[in-house]
Design goal:
mainly alpha, Potassium Channel Kv1.1, Chain A, 3 domains, 3-stranded mixed β-sheet, two-stranded antiparallel sheet, 15 helices, 5 strands, globular, signal
């Protein structure tokens, strides 16, 4: 019942934004004009609260103009203020749900090299999490291929219990996202204005979306563009997107450092290069 009531409330707020009914505040940006509600936007974003309290045109005429920002990005921000989301929305599921879906993209019956260097026919992988290939009672490997990335050889010590394959985990998280690779730059642009408008909770959602998008689209040309935007529009003290960029490059170092655009990033932003060096050193350069 409570869940249904919350959905109805969210739908009511969304309809208020769409219809503009009972609006007492107009926000303009470029050619866009948004009929908004002070009770909603002022309680969710301090920028609008301060503007309304200022006592100028914003208070007398109920109009706030945003001439310096991208209308498309402002529209997404307003959608978030009213709905707690913006497109492309995150799927309403958990990592574990996404992990089970990852089973569909894992291929089985491949020949892989075991620890002794010989090609062996492996069983059809099972991508259930956490991975376990040995039998706790008898210490034998009943499932020698727990996923497409792992082959359990004779030297595993029957110790492949309850572990999470890094590759599977990344694939599972990457599945839990919709939309195209262009969203990387959208997230970075929206993140750029979060401090200016001080929208409650938006930074956390942006970081999660950007992280998942990087996991899915790290090999797309727009990744370097979004990474450049993230580093060029945020202060050194704000590591929200910067750490995600560094972690993404670290996870795919072999492929990404060969790209001229990524090499240019490392040359232009010393903080990125240093952060990447620290990250790889702490991980033992694996």
């Amino acid at each position: 019942m409570a869940g249904a009531a919350r959905k109805q409330l969210c739908l009511a707020l969304k309809n208020l934004l769409i219809s503009g009914a009972f609006s007492d505040l107009t926000v303009t940006c470029g050619s866009d004009s948004h009929k908004l509600h002070k009770n909603v936007v002022c309680s969710r974003a301090d920028f609008f609260s301060r503007a309304v309290k200022f006592g100028g045109k914003e208070t007398k005429e109920g109009i706030i103009d945003l001439p310096d920002d991208d209308p498309a990005i402002i529209k997404l921000m307003i959608n978030y203020i009213y709905e707690g989301e913006y497109d492309p929305a995150l799927p309403d599921d958990s990592v574990s749900d996404a992990a089970s879906a990852a089973t569909a993209i894992l291929t089985g019956g491949k020949r892989k090299k075991s620890s002794d260097g010989k090609n062996k026919k492996v069983a059809t992988p099972s991508a259930s999490f956490p991975h376990t290939c040995s039998d706790g009672n008898y210490g034998c490997c009943n499932n020698p291929s727990v996923c497409a990335h792992h082959y359990c050889g004779s030297d595993c010590g029957y110790d492949c219990n309850n572990y999470r394959c890094k590759d599977c985990h990344i694939e599972a998280l990457a599945l839990a996202i919709s939309g195209s690779s262009e969203q990387l730059l959208v997230h970075a642009k929206l993140y750029e204005i979060t401090d200016k408008y001080d929208v409650m909770g938006l930074k956390d959602l942006l970081a999660e979306k950007f992280k998942r998008a990087c996991q899915r689209f790290w090999n797309e040309p727009v990744f370097a563009v979004a990474a450049h935007h993230a580093f060029s529009t945020t202060p050194d003290s704000d590591q929200g997107l910067r750490d995600i960029v560094s972690a993404t490059i670290a996870a795919h170092m072999t492929e990404l450092v060969k790209k001229p655009e990524v090499e240019a990033l490392l040359t232009e932003f010393n903080g990125l290069a240093v952060g990447l060096l620290k990250m790889k050193t702490e991980a033992g350069w694996k």
